[in-house]
Amino acid sequence: MGSGTAFIPPCDNAEPNFPEQWRLYYMSERIKTFSNWPFTEDCACTPEKMAEAGFIHCPSENSPDVVRCFFCLKELEGWQPEDDPMDEHRQHSPSCLFIALKKKAEQLTLSEFLKLDLERVKIEMQKQMNQHIGIFQTRAGEVKKKLEELDADD
What we know:
The chain has five helices and three strands. The model has no long low-confidence stretch (mean pLDDT about 85).
């Protein structure tokens, strides 16, 4: 495979060994997540346009229109039919490398893909680390409060 050869082969069921996160580089895989998307016709935020902007649909019971960029992990909700997914993505996550790509993910070379995916993994790890730090800080605050209460009792 030369340095100028596209790395990601066409997406079909013959590629089951790709990790799930790698499969999300395929627009067709992202579109599949929009099966219950509330905006499908006569609007700017169709499933196709949402997927093109890097979003996957991850609804909750209270928020049926929550989407998350598979790459930068930015979550957005409160969509209106006239909202342009790419514009919203750029506005809320201007440093997302996926939306800054100058070509389709399927056209990336192996080297380009691996460099890009390394950045995705860094973002994912940073988010997880921040969640753990938040949990630790909450627990540390609870322990501190109990220690202060014990100290006040003396």
